Amino acid sequence: MNRWAAPIAASRAGAAHLRAGRPCQDAVLCRELRDTDGQPVMLMAVADGHGGRRYRRSEVGSRLACETALAVVADALAAAPPGDGEGGWSHWLAHDLPEAVQRRWMEAVQEHWQSDPGEGGFEPLLYGSTLGLVVMTPRWWGHTGLGDWDLVRVEPDGHARLLEQENEPTALGEATCSLCQPQAASLFARRAALHPLAPEERDFALVLCTDGIRKSCATDADFLTLAAWLAGGGAEAAGDLPEALDRISREGSGDDVTVAIGRAGALGEGPVSLPVPAAVTGPSAVGPAPAQAVQASHPRPLSRRRPAIGRAVAIGLALAAAGAGWLALVWPRTQATPQVAPISPGLRAARAEVERLCNQPATLPLQLRRRRELFVALRQGRQDPGQLKAAAATDPLAALIAADLPTDQRPNAPSPAPQPAAAQPRRALQGLGACPALLEALSRQWALTPALPPP
């Protein structure tokens, strides 16, 4: 019997797009298909058109990306299974499917252009779009795609874990991998994986979303808390999903927001009832969570209480790490007397994060772009840097960004001292071994961050 309930999904135009009179450039598609044995297979696809003058038909490109993915999966299921067992399907997710998707997407956008030609000649980049795809069968589930989409797994107790994100070195700054690139099919393999389903495996939910959701959250802990909340309602939340996405965009990045949620129920009995994480319903004294994970401490079914989305975005698990103010206290002591100062978990995590970032300088612009809302919240005084520093063991990158907040960009900052405004925080990062590439990337992101509006 099938374990998967029918997915739910919604796609909404971003608040900034609505103000500018632009259409939603995201797309989503969820469908139930059948394999050669008649078994149900669930499909979730999300796509994000790039927007802008160079990609002025990207809202069409994203729609065609989802439709093309559906057609390719349907054809594969109707034919004999590729290869032998799961190994054949794994190769299909990484290679055969991407080649078929890109080829058919190119044909589809060319056909659209021919039916409605515009100024100038045809170029695939006019329709540029990302694509994230999840296929869920009774025996396995898998994902593939390219671009800046995210995939989160949520357990029945509310524990959420980030499974997939874009880490392609060629995706710099605001750029991302796209179906319009000539080598697009070869980029799917980095994002492809197959996960067998064991009979004894407990139920879980999968949250697939475009980058507007994550960009609306100040920290990854906020994002995972929000993903757990979205997954927690199951089919009961389907009617509330558009309203929730509108608020996420309005109070967050202003970008288009799209989410698809697949849920593994107990032997097809329907969706499980995931609890609402404590960080969504308000501040609470929960213990420190592991990196890139959140844990609910007071389960409360969504059907009984609908928490404010704004809190899920604004309140992170940084509030849970009381007593761990290592950045303000431990870092200076460690620099002065490293031979006697204990190394706290937060300091250890910060050093490891600096090393990781400096070992991947090409990905720095992309990783900092994902935290744009955090830069804005810090500069505008909506996020307490001390709380982020205290939660470094949970989200070390957020703590490093908070430590780098230039003094002249802090709200109500005093008159600048004779030394450079960013000298003190930079000494903290340099003491952790921050490389010039990391410091330069942080400086560029601060320069792009809007200041407080005039009184």
Walk me through what this model shows.
This protein is an alpha+beta fold and 455 residues long. Helices cover 38% and strands 15% of the residues. Strand 4 and strand 5 form a beta hairpin. Helix 2 packs across helix 3 (85-115) and helix 11 crosses helix 15. The chain is globular. The chain starts with a strand and ends in an 8-residue tail after the last helix.
- Report helical residue fraction: 25-40%
Largest sheet: 6 strands, antiparallel
* Order of SSEs: EHEEHHEEEEHEEHHHEHEHHHHHHHHH
Task: Specify the overall morphology.
Answer: globular
Please work out how many helical segments DSSP would assign: 17
Low-confidence stretches: 266-341, 413-423
Strand arrangement across the biggest beta sheet: 1-10-9-6-7-11
Percent strand: 15-25%
SSE inventory with pairings:
Layout: E1 4-12, H1 15-20, E2 26-34, E3 40-48, H2 58-78, H3 85-115, E4 131-136, E5 140-146, E6 150-154, E7 160-164, H4 184-187, E8 193-196, E9 205-209, H5 211-215, H6 220-232, H7 241-251, E10 257-264, H8 278-281, E11 293-294, H9 309-314, H10 326-336, H11 345-358, H12 364-369, H13 372-379, H14 385-390, H15 396-403, H16 423-431, H17 436-447
Antiparallel strand pairs: 1-10, 2-3, 3-4, 4-5, 5-8, 6-7, 6-9, 7-11, 9-10
Helix pairs in contact: 2-3, 11-15
